[in-house]
């Protein structure tokens, strides 16, 4: 018998071979679907109908010490980040988070001050965005696990899902990309930079911000046809919207952060690579109805943010980068557990 | 300097020294409290007001491979149990669970069939109690982590909290105790028994049932003044209700399962020890207004369950076992992560 096959003829794939996204597909295929789900399985959040208009919005995601917490990140920052990364998913749907629960896995040798630091970080992450931590549980685990679940309510019609992008819509983002990827290069690879730049890039890794104000403003503007957060990278976000909306994109301008251009030059790296495929960033990636662009832009600016147009939605299921007359394909890769190395 | 103290004079306590319950207290003390919480922090579930009458009910708890999954438990059973243990908390408050989210930590060497088995177990656990798994996320972790969060809605007035027990109320439980503890003795210690009994006792460990029907019926009867599930053991449940309601108990009859009496006799163990302090059981422990006892009993029997009176609530903050004229104190111990050995 082929040693790479099981007795049933399945390939002998481990979770590393399969990868996070395929694992989610495998799990989903074995779940009985709840009738009348207001949000399709696989969107940034899940939801349940409360009445004719209102939905309960739910999200859970965990932070794992070994893979998600670089050495220089404090426990306070790790706990705060665990909350913020869930809030970013709410932001991308335009939903105000109300309450968070935490399920904590703690190694046996964690000290009282470590636990206090985690508690303060959880509280800070929630309060920064107007939510409260209202409950949870702890268990013993061999690695630090901070699993957050988030709850909020929303009008069903105001949810910005992944599946509404239409050809001709404007592709836009709420900020510049590549700082987290550059920060991770500093931490994990042999990159270097000036002390000032180092602080900015590590700050992007350790103190991420969720674009909640922007997401709420965009939802309120009713100008957005599709939305996702960029936690798995800009390229991946485009492929996800493309898949769920059955469209493609032409990107005319990659929103690379200035700091990333300088960092990339100094270290002989490709700034587009850092901005497109880095991940661990929490900008919103949205498509906007062209006639409502001004409303969308004004809504975001009114809350102190910015909305950068970077391309167009196309009928063709292509993912094209078209900058300075040079075309290249935007690949379907980005940050992925089991496949990305930390 | 004392080597057991830190520079701040704190004792050098690890999470093992502190224990799960104290850890939760430490965390809670660092969280800003949400105003108007309908359920006190530390009850079996958390909740948020939806409107004047309705609340959203939330719960999260994780199952950890190393500490919560004995060797003979299949992944299907482990995944199902992760859901059921959360549903038991809903049952104890009288709340129908609607939707579950799963945050999964998978070791790198898990195979596709392992993932499928987990997915089927999650689905089975939810569907068995009328809920659906509607979303989640996966991460890489060094140990299997199944973190479930559960959502439902309820009328605030129908929630059975831990804090309403009154002196004179009847103490009652929904079944007999000690089977899980005996099963764990079989698996982890050098105990033995007949094949038939072995199957029953291991079944209690691997295929726990949540008393959801009973909990819903009791809530509907409006006869219950306080309620908790017994996942940390009967003794611990009594101490928790006692603390939250500021009452004590006299237990006149410990509901030891017949199988546990036989198992204990064969292995020279104390059956009361197994029934009181074992934990990992999912019966409901409730206090019932004496004038409404008949209604409570009838409600549970109408759904095929049983309600066993085992004692009385007292004004004295004592926890007394008073059987056959012999009195002993019911200690505040039970199943606790970081302190219990698996």
What's the CATH first level of the largest domain in chain A? Alpha Beta
Biggest sheet strand order of chain A reads 7-9-6-10-8-11-12
Question: Biggest interface in this structure?
Answer: A-B, 83 and 82 residues
The oligomeric status of these chains comes to: homodimer
Total of domains of chain A = 3
Strand-helix topology:
2 copies of one chain form a homodimer.
Chain A: H1 15-18, H2 20-29, E1 46-49, E2 54-64, H3 65-68, H4 75-93, E3 97-106, H5 112-127, E4 132-140, E5 145-155, E6 170-173, H6 179-188, H7 195-206, H8 212-221, E7 224-229, H9 234-245, E8 248-251, H10 258-266, H11 271-277, E9 284-288, H12 293-302, E10 308-314, E11 319-323, E12 326-329
Parallel strand pairs in A: 3-4, 8-11
Antiparallel strand pairs in A: 1-2, 2-5, 3-5, 6-9, 6-10, 7-9, 8-10, 11-12
Describe the structure.
Two copies of one chain form a homodimer. By secondary structure, chain A is α+β, with helices and mostly antiparallel strands. Chain A has three domains: 32 residues, no CATH class; 117 residues, 60s Ribosomal Protein L30, Chain: A (2-Layer Sandwich), CATH 3.30.1330.10; 160 residues, PurM-like C-terminal domain (Phosphoribosyl-aminoimidazole Synthetase, Chain A, domain 2). The first copy, chain A, is built from twelve helices and twelve strands. A seven-stranded mixed β-sheet of chain A has the order 7-9-6-10-8-11-12, sandwiched between helices. In chain A, strand 11 and strand 12 form a beta hairpin. The N terminus of chain A is likely disordered. At the A-B interface, helix 1, helix 2, strand 1, strand 2 and helix 3 of A face helix 1, helix 2, strand 1, strand 2 and helix 3 of B.
């Amino acid at each position: 018998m082929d040693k790479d096959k099981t007795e049933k003829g399945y390939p002998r794939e481990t979770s590393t071979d399969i990868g996070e996204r395929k694992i989610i597909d495998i799990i989903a295929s074995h779940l009985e679907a709840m009738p009348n789900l207001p949000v399709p399985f696989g969107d940034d959040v899940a939801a349940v109908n409360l009445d004719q208009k209102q939905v309960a919005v739910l999200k859970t995601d965990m932070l794992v010490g070994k893979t998600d917490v670089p050495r220089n990140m404090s426990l306070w920052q790790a706990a705060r980040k665990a909350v913020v990364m869930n809030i970013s998913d709410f932001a991308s749907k335009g939903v105000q988070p109300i309450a968070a629960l935490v399920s904590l896995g703690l190694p046996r040798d964690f000290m009282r001050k470590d636990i206090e630091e985690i508690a303060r970080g959880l509280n800070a992450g929630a309060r920064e965005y107007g939510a409260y931590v209202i409950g949870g549980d702890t268990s013993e685990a061999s690695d630090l696990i901070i699993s957050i679940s988030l709850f909020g309510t929303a009008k069903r019609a105001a949810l910005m899902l992944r599946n509404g992008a239409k050809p001709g819509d404007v592709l836009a983002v709420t900020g510049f990309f590549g700082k987290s990827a550059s920060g991770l290069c500093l931490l994990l690879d042999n990159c270097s930079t000036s002390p000032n730049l180092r602080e900015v890039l590590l700050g992007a890794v350790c103190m991420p911000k969720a674009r909640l104000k922007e997401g709420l403003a965009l939802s309120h503007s009713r100008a957005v046809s599709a939305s996702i957060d960029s936690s798995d990278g800009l390229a991946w976000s485009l492929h996800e919207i493309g898949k769920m909306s059955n469209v493609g994109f032409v990107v005319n301008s990659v929103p690379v952060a200035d700091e990333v251009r300088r960092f990339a030059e100094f270290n002989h790296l490709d700034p587009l690579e850092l901005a497109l495929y880095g991940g661990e960033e929490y900008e919103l990636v949205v498509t906007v109805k062209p006639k409502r662009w001004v409303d969308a832009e004004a809504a975001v600016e009114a809350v102190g943010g910015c909305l950068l147009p970077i391309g167009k939605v196309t009928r063709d299921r292509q993912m094209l980068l078209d900058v300075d007359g040079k075309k290249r394909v935007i690949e379907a890769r980005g940050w992925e557990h089991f496949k990305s190395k930390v």
